[in-house]
Amino acid sequence: MIISKKVEFSASHICRSEHLSDEDNERLYGAASNPLGHGHNYIVEVAVSGDPEPVTGMILDLKHLKDILEERVLSVYDHRLLNREVAPFDRVVPTVENIAIDIWNRLEPHIDPTGRARLWSVRVHETNDLFVEYRGEK
Amino acid sequence: MTVYLSRRYGFAASHRLHSPALSEARNREIYGKCNNPNGHGHNYEVELTVRSAVDPVTGLAVDLATLDGLAETHILKPFRYRNLNEEIDVFRLAVPTTENMAAEVDRRLRAAWPETFPADGPRLEKVRIWETERNICEV
What we know:
The structure holds two protein chains of two kinds.
Chain A: E1 2-13, H1 22-29, E2 38-49, H2 62-77, E3 80-81, H3 82-85, H4 96-107, E4 118-127, E5 130-134
Parallel strand pairs in A: 1-3
Antiparallel strand pairs in A: 1-2, 2-4, 4-5
Chain B: E1 2-15, H1 24-31, E2 40-53, H2 64-79, H3 84-87, H4 90-93, H5 98-116, E3 123-132, E4 135-138
Antiparallel strand pairs in B: 1-2, 2-3, 3-4
Helix pairs in contact in B: 2-5
């Protein structure tokens, strides 16, 4: 079974790569390449898979999931300029693709110390018409 | 790293659900008010999911301008503000149900995909179409 939890954060970012020319940055990222940055209300859906524990009937204590989301993601990302304040975005472009991958990397080791549940997917909505899902595929 | 990127688009169009292979009475029974001879319309939404590796330099899985251009040329422009039964060839024969709409959107995108993206590039994973908030079909 898969159980999902949804949280939100707001943050600003600049989609520009120092490895690309100004022209390429503008062509690839469009308005998101504005060097002064812009922001979004991001929605994050985290899905966890596993079998419900027979006594509690739960795959995972959702309070635990809420706590690690707060500690590992929201407290780090919320109301920040991602490029300057959240590693690895000093090195990689904070596209919604890379944000989904980074949130997976932050959560995955801490999902369930007992190993019953495991992280299934991280879905990040940047706007109403664009979202990216990462399932840990290398 | 491989991700699934989803992009959502909208268009408005009219249609009538009616099969010439069935009697008038049977059409009314199956399609209900959607069988109204004068037709009716919807604000359709189309969600395309693309599976692709993330480019290590750009951080992008797919060039959104290219994907948007593909959707605009092959789906949105031909369908927007059209009477689907009268103006889209395939729906002169097939009934423009959500199912057949999803299949046609999928077919058009797959036909144009190879000339739009490289063979080792993004892959069309899934097409979902909303006829209303409560009526959704996925291919």
